[in-house]
Design a protein that fits this description.
By secondary structure, this protein is α/β, with parallel strands linked by helices. It contains 4 helices and 9 strands; from the N terminus they run ααβββββαββββα. The longest helix has about 40 residues.
């Protein structure tokens, strides 16, 4: 903004008295207002994905149990505990006090990012004839319900740690009978004391959790196969999982 007219107005004000002085004050106020109206630049957030750890190696062939006895698994939409229903990345510096990184976020909520990972991991485990997720019209034998209880970067330890906790419940989808339940808690040291270091640790914790979940499902699925074959009578052949 050109300030030369303001200088001339100030010179006239010295000779013209209070009215002219008021005009100069008004002009200066307008100049201040122009500066205040300029928008403050906003730094965009850096977005991160939760996708486990990709080794780049091709997936190993799946060892399926006998097709006649292998169950179909339905994975319901993962639920999220309070504070985890947004894409913001949580961290902890003091016990019981949660905070969010200002310029780092997940691309989606942790529960939504976890949903396809559960399907892929359990399908590769070779325990099921098929693995599907809700919503679906497929009639499934077993159902897996999950809840993300905790996903946060703890700076109250040295080195800092990412803690991921998942509660999982496996049940018979037809009888609603509970087959097994577990709470998986993974803790991974962060490589650096910042959001990028926490994201790397979170992805490693996710992969460990997926592996632990597949291992948890194995005995419960085998128990279901045995009981189902027994209920079907002696004519039903039980083919052990390989």
């Amino acid at each position: 903004m050109n300030t030369q007219p303001l200088w001339r107005a100030w010179s006239r004000a010295r000779a013209g008295g209070a009215c002219a002085g008021l005009a100069v004050v008004t002009a200066l106020s307008g100049l201040t207002a122009c500066s205040a109206l300029k928008p403050t630049p906003v730094t965009p957030s850096v977005l991160y994905r939760l996708e486990g750890v990709t080794t780049g190696a091709p997936a190993a062939p799946r060892a399926r149990p006998g097709a006649s006895m292998a169950p179909t698994l339905l994975i319901s939409t993962p639920q999220a505990a309070s504070g985890l229903d947004s894409p913001r990345i949580l961290y902890v510096r003091q016990a019981h006090r949660l905070a969010y990184f200002a310029q780092s976020e997940w691309v989606d909520t942790p529960a939504r990012m976890l949903a396809p990972l559960l399907v892929t991991a359990l399908d590769r485990a070779g325990l099921f004839r098929a693995v599907v997720s809700t919503p679906t019209a497929v009639k499934a034998d077993l159902r897996l319900d999950t809840e993300v209880v905790r996903l946060q970067h703890h700076f109250d330890t040295s080195p800092s740690q990412v803690r991921l906790t998942l509660r999982a419940t496996l049940s018979d989808n037809n009888t609603r009978q509970l087959l097994a339940q577990i709470e998986l808690d993974q803790r991974v040291d962060a490589a650096s004391e910042d959001a990028p270091g926490g994201v790397v640790a979170a992805n490693l914790a996710t992969q460990q959790m997926l592996d632990a979940l597949a291992a948890f499902c194995g005995p419960a699925v085998e128990s279901w196969r045995v009981s189902t074959a027994a209920a079907a009578g002696p004519a039903a052949a039980i083919r052990p999982a390989r």
